[in-house]
């Protein structure tokens, strides 16, 4: 037996909660209610960070006690059961794979990988749904067919609600000294509400059991809309006293209030549950409500950023990728214009200009120049020119320059580049050095 008075443990699994080691129950001080007392049960004090640690541990315990030979576990999960199972599996020496939706926050998927899980990421709802042949549930069932693999299946395994019947319910009963009047939980697999609710009603049938769910198309990981709940085995509304719907805006708004006013670092589904509790619980003397806060905010920073944008400075815009050639975008059009324009001259005209002292700029590569060249020409290969070099060119931009290459194409690019650098009087030789040779002009 672990000694919780010293909180010194021989294994991390001894930290799993029970009546002797309950997760904390903390009174909310700023609910706006006069009489009713609202207590939050802080489930991130579980050893692996969420209410689902209870379920993960109980699913494994139950299978072991039934004599199942466990080697590798596979489970469809919205994240928290996966994290709990991954860590229970590590401690027990089992392998673990999770099938889950790509819509689950990156933080949770990163945590799962970090904790050694094999992830199979699929296009599915935020919370896995039955009846989707390509979804997380079908994939887990398929993977569990392999020898040595077992699916414990939190959605249909009675060990899920039983985890709460054995631990969450007794803890709350004891922590409130039996004074609890209302129990409120958000609804995912419904293990929490069903197992805890059963225990509490067995001890006092007047305890009001209230479930809270999000709207269709919601963005709150771990919970299910009413439509999805209809397909959920442990959703047994006949056992509950009320089922309420809360919007994403209310849920995230309540979470923000919890952080900034109550100093409670709750995740989105805790905000959802509290918003429902504040709708359902009467503000009367003697009312003691307990609300499950399934996990804390840190796995959902990307979700909070989406829903509370005023808290976050806009992301700096990604810098536009620098074009490799700054003229590339407009070059083709400019090139065609230049080709048809008055700046293209024939080789004899270029030779006459050179005679009159004009600089000839040969933009071919050194190997081409070595084969045949124009005597007295300045050579500056096009790549260097386009990188900004003006070596050998007149420094006065009003001085005329004639560009030449092998056939008259690169020299036109060079003409455009020089004009962009401020040279006002640039010509390009049509047909390049080829035309120069054909015209019988001097070469070296
Ligand atoms: C963050 C979070 N909130 C609420 C729930 C709902 O709990 P339950 O599946 O017991 O209904 C879950 C379940 O995964 C969860 O991960």
TrEMBL record:
Keywords per UniProt: Pyridoxal phosphate
SMART domains in the cross-refs: RHOD
Rhodanese domain sequence ranges: 354-444
Essential cofactor(s): pyridoxal 5'-phosphate
Protein origin, superkingdom: Bacteria
Protein name: Cysteine synthase
Any single GO BP term: alpha-amino acid metabolic process
Coiled coil: none
CDD domains: CBS_like, RHOD
Gene3D superfamilies cross-referenced by the UniProt entry: 3.40.50.1100, Rhodanese-like domain (3.40.250.10)
Pfam families: PALP, Rhodanese
């Amino acid at each position: 037996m672990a000694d919780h008075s010293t909180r010194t443990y021989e294994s991390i699994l001894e930290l799993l909660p029970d009546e002797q080691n309950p997760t904390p129950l903390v009174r909310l001080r700023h609910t706006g209610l006069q009489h009713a007392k609202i207590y939050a049960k802080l489930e991130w004090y579980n050893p692996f960070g969420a209410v689902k640690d209870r379920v993960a541990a109980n699913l494994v315990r139950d299978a072991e006690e039934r004599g199942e030979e466990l080697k590798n576990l596979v489970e469809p999960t919205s994240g928290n059961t996966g994290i709990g199972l991954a860590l229970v599996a590590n401690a027990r020496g089992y392998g673990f794979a999770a099938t889950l939706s790509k819509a689950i926050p990156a933080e949770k998927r990163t945590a799962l990988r970090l904790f050694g899980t094999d992830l199979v990421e699929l296009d599915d709802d935020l919370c896995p749904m039955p009846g989707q042949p390509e979804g997380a549930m079908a994939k887990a069932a398929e993977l569990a067919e392999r020898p040595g693999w077992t699916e414990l299946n939190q959605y249909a395994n009675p060990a899920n609600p039983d985890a709460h019947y054995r631990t969450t319910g007794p803890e709350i009963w004891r922590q409130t000294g039996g004074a609890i009047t209302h129990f409120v939980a958000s609804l995912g697999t419904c293990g929490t509400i069903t197992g805890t609710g059963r225990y509490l009603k067995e001890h006092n049938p007047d305890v009001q059991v209230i479930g809270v769910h999000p709207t269709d198309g919601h963005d709150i990981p771990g919970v299910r809309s009413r439509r999805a709940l209809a397909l959920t085995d442990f959703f047994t509304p006949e056992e509950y006293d009320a089922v309420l719907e809360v919007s994403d805006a209310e849920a995230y708004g309540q979470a923000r209030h919890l952080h900034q006013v109550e100093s409670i670092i709750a995740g989105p589904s805790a905000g959802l549950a509290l918003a429902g509790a504040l709708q359902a619980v009467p503000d009367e003397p003697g009312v003691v409500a307990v609300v499950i806060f399934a996990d804390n905010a840190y796995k959902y920073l990307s979700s909070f950023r989406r829903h509370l944008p005023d808290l976050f400075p806009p992301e700096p815009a990604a810098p536009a990728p620098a074009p490799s050639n700054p003229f590339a975008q407009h070059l083709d059009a400019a090139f065609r214009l230049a080709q048809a324009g008055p700046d293209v001259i024939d080789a004899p005209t270029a030779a006459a200009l050179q005679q009159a002292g004009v600089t000839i700029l040969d933009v071919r590569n050194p190997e081409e120049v070595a084969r045949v060249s124009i005597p007295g020409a300045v050579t500056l290969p096009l790549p260097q020119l386009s990188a900004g070099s003006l070596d050998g060119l007149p420094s006065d931009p009003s001085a005329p320059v004639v560009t030449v290459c092998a056939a008259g194409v690169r020299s036109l690019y060079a003409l455009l580049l020089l004009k962009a650098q401020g040279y006002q009087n640039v010509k390009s030789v049509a047909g390049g050095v080829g035309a120069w040779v054909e015209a019988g002009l001097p070469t070296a």
